[in-house]
Amino acid sequence: MRHPILSGSGYKLYALILGVIMLIHGSVLYFYYGFPIATAVGDSVLYNALYGALAPGLWYIVSFASLSKDEIALVGTHIAAALLTVFLWTSLADFTLGFIFLGQIEYQEFLGDSYIWRLIIGVLYYSITVLIFYLIKYYQDMQERLNRELELQNLLKDSELRMLKSQINPHFIFNSLNSISALTISKSESAREMVIKLSDFLRYSLGKDSVEMNTLEEEIKNSSLYLDIEKVRFGSKLNFEKEVSDACLKVEVPNLILQPLFENAVKYGVYESIEQVSISLKCEPHDDMLHILISNNFDMDAMPLKGEGIGLDNVRKRLSLVYGRSDLLEINQAEDTFNITMKIPTNQTEDA
Amino acid sequence: MRKIRTLIIDDEHLAREIIRTYLETDEDIELLGECSDGFEGFKQINELKPDLVFLDVMMPKLTGFEMLELLENAPVIIFSTAHDEFAIKAFEKNAIDYLLKPYSQDRFSEAVSKAKLKVASGLDSVGSSTTGLASVLEEHYEKAEMISRVAVKTGTKIHIISVDKIRYLEAMDDYVKLFTESGPFIKQNTMKYYETHLPTDDFVRVHRSYIVRLKEIDKVELMGKDSHVVLLKDGTQLNVSRSGYSRLKEVLGF
Predict the structure, then answer these.
(1) Is pLDDT above 80 for B123?
(2) What separation in angstroms does the CA of A279 have from each of A88, A165, A202?
(3) Are strands B4-9 and B29-35 parallel, antiparallel or unpaired?
(4) Distance of alpha carbon B171 from its chain centroid, rounded?
(5) Which of A176, A177, A179 to mutate to test the interface with B (most CBs of B within 10 A)?
């Protein structure tokens, strides 16, 4: 734990406070008691400087004592520390001052009379110091807890983001490998092409754990690879068209954010239909938003086997974690067309 | 020896191609044709009566399993799929083998050999080894995934019914009669199956012979001394058993 006086710039304030106390102390001796200026200054400086040197050590007592949960031990520790500190301090000050100003009878008398007061004021000093230290310590603890909480939240957000990222469907890989296995028999050229596409796709999708953002251009390239591979599997049943304005290509988007949208289109469009399914991608820049539209037609008679839209839900959650907005993904269904509109804010830099 | 008449059902042309290629060298096999979806597969099996079918699971509209359920006399089945999670279900349906895509020619030949043995010996001997799986399957039912649709047929026409359209179900010996908005359908299955596979939030088994959609219930009435009936919104009256009544009490909270 940081020492409030010795580390950082706390010592400046501490010296200022000591200086003010010395000034008041000296003034009282000079103006009220009428001691010579040298005596007043000597008493004030020596007496307070000595405490000033001892006080920082009390921090360790406060730090150490707060570790113990036992209240009696705590009070005991402070009483012992107070007595020791005050006794050491006043005795040392009195002895030294008495020695320095040996010739001044009046002052010697004052020194004797004020001893009891010095003890009482000493205890008061001790109490105030310890109280302030406790306040500082409480504040530091709170600050630290807040920091830790913030850190934890960031960690949680990180892992949540990682979890929401699209996972490659193993069946997609095995089916693709089966297609490659078939292609090797008569079309080795196409087999090689597909191996390369599958590798590029896997490299992009598996290697993106650390990077959070990527350009739309890269994203589209990757999704095109995915659709190319599916096209080898499903032939003319899958048709893909894209219309992307050049202004969109360099925009940063969360990586692998397009993939689940295309997967959704393939899963509920192509996989479930006997007829041809067209998937289209459009990107248009709007004021401070990039609009990405993905549409596909689907067989209205087909009934999906399992709960729909986990992939889409994850995309929505991811967008809201990255941009802090929950209105960035719109889904609508018109007749036999499924439309997804994803908006990407372009004016702000993401804070993920 | 008579050749083994074989059919391939898979929605991916390359997946069919590899099976076709593997079969080419086998003198005992006569390839009848290829189908790219379950509807066509159902039709072809009924028309051509093949001995052996290579069957994919995940296909548009009708899965391999759903197609199989609709057949009265199923041929010998070898599943060919990229999904490993259907293996138990496949053997429950008396599949002779389960090939995981992609597979080698050797693994494929092994499956074909088994199929040949089974075709040669008729339908009784080889399949019996799978009955020991019953207990495993019971357990499988316990944590069964809920179904969202049911494939039924009237004559040779296949209908896919969404579970949302089922109003209630009635037991009929080896069959279950499903009452839907568009009329009743008969399906070969058990009440136990539907009790465990229909969403429990929507359906309740009120009697040995009845499972009812909760939303269809108009009221529960006392009938006689201590037996009850449920009245559905369309006026249908169904008996409620003692345990059915306590289940109703629990889900409806009365």
Answers:
(1) no
(2) 86, 22, 22
(3) parallel
(4) 17
(5) A179
Residue B100's identity, in one-letter code, is L
Instruction: Please state, in angstroms and rounded to a whole number, the distance separating the CA atoms of residues B45 and B68.
Output: 10
Q: Which two tokens stand for residue A303?
A: 């009934």
Nearest Cα to B129, choosing from B170, B91, B177?
B91
Q: Distance between CA atoms of B51 and B75, rounded to whole angstroms?
A: 5
Residue found by looking up tokens 């590029």 in the block: A200
Give the per-residue pLDDT at A351. Answer: 44
Chain A closest-CA separation from residue B119 CA (Å): 27
- Taking an 8 Å cut-off on Cβ atoms, the answer to whether B61 and A232 are in contact is no
**pLDDT for B148:** 87
Residue closest to B186 by CA, chosen among B151, B233, B238, B236 = B151
Distance of alpha carbon B205 from alpha carbon B88, whole angstroms: 26
And the tokens for A275? Answer: 């007829």
What is the arithmetic mean of pLDDT over A246-269? 91
Q: How far is A160 from chain B (nearest CA, A)?
A: 26
Element spanning B49, H or E: none
What ipTM does the predicted assembly reach?
0.81
Per DSSP, A169 falls in state P
- CA-CA distance, A243 to A245, in Å (whole number)? 7
Which two tokens mark A117? 């007061």
pLDDT tens readout for residues A119-138: 898 899 999 999 999 999 89
Task: Considering only CA atoms, give the Rg of chain B.
Answer: 21
CA-CA distances (angstroms) from residue B33 to A151, A258, B45, B111? 63, 39, 10, 19
Peptide bond into B102 cis (omega under 30): yes
pTM exceeding the 0.90 threshold for the entire prediction: no
